């Protein structure tokens, strides 16, 4: 029996690259995203690689929809071995311009969307005494980023969720890993909301060598599954993450200077 991975946010970017990589490695897939047409296009690519796929359009902020997704995946494949929580939204805005509706959208997708999948799938993992949970966070969950309070709040929460859940579940045979990409050249950034910055500057930044590619992140996700790694910081995010861990005062000062320029 082939192993099976469930991947959220799989219609484009990191999620798509991860789904295709796992398919090439022989995994069957349960994939989900909000856009049905794009999701089905990815499913066709997966089928062409000779593995099975169940594609169900789902809003991960809808708990009942997530529960139905997980249960259908288990029903179809009998087991799910790997969960990749990847669906997310991004917004840049100072706190004063961040509405409660903005907060609710970001927290519902970026945090509750992860909690819903984990909560639903966890009894299955515990009963089997094995499983992998990979939470795709961000270097914005390791380093505070100017004018991204809501986004960083959601991603710092994912860091805490991942690290504490690892302590709880590893003794039960369940591996929990965090992936923290730098800015990634994908449709995720194209769909981001920029309330206090120039989106053209972001698009220009996406063409620089410092930006990670979705395939880079997919390889990191595969690596933590195969080598039981607790955490991988991807690409150029390694430098600010390392510096902030050792010299938080200095990095904070540099970031504050950036907000005044």
Would you write up a description of this structure?
Helices cover 52% and strands 15% of the residues. The chain has helices at 13-24, 36-47, 63-77, 100-128, 149-169, 187-190, 199-205, 214-227, 238-246, 248-260; strands at residues 4-8, 28-32, 53-55, 82-85, 91-92, 131-136, 174-181, 193-194, 231-234. α1 (13-24) links the parallel β1 and β2. α9 crosses α10.
Topology:
Blueprint lengths: L3 E5 L4 H12 L3 E5 L3 H12 L5 E3 L7 H15 L4 E4 L5 E2 L7 H29 L2 E6 L12 H21 L4 E8 L5 H4 L2 E2 L4 H7 L8 H14 L3 E4 L3 H9 L1 H13 L1
Helix pairs in contact: 1-8, 3-4, 4-5, 9-10
What's this model, at a glance?
With 261 residues, the protein is an alpha/beta fold. It has helices spanning 13-24, 36-47, 63-77, 100-128, 149-169, 187-190, 199-205, 214-227, 238-246, 248-260; strands spanning 4-8, 28-32, 53-55, 82-85, 91-92, 131-136, 174-181, 193-194, 231-234.
